[in-house]
Please model this.
Amino acid sequence: MAHGVPFETVLELIPLIPASAFKAVKVGQQTYYCFSKNVRLPSLGKVRLVISFDNPDLTGTCAVLVTNHLTWSAKKIIETYLLRWPIETFYQDAKQQLGLNDYRMRSATAIQKHWCLVFAAYSFLHLDCLASSRRKNPLPIKTIGQVIRQQTQSVIEALILHAHSLLNQNLDSALSLTFYLLRHHNFRVTYKKRWRL
Model:
């Protein structure tokens, strides 16, 4: 490893790096203070190591990034790493909220269609998360989960209003079907007080 001294972890190496070895790197609006060096790690071989702090005092939590791209600058490595967070949150939301891996098809075409529907749904939900003017605030103002809960609540409210309308028209069979659908999909009816059915 660096300096010819074996370390158990990179974190043991950080106090030995002089503060002058950390260079300011601006990525977007944020400035990071980074040390980068090509090192040989026993389990990975030769890699590029970046140790990054978000403050010039080099205090608090640091990010330790490792890549096999030995010629990349610290800025390029950080920019690439920062792309991971939206990807990670997409997969988490798509799996947990939108059923990305809840398919039961066997053909590649059917799976591809399912994935396309999930991606389209995510795109529409993500648009609903953004502020009306991206110039003022380019970051989402709601999470995908919050938007899904809002949309689900709107659908349930519309279904309950529809059931209420059917009840007023004495259409018992349609009303029975509506409540069957509510029970079948495990929707929780939390609007009893509000709608007084």
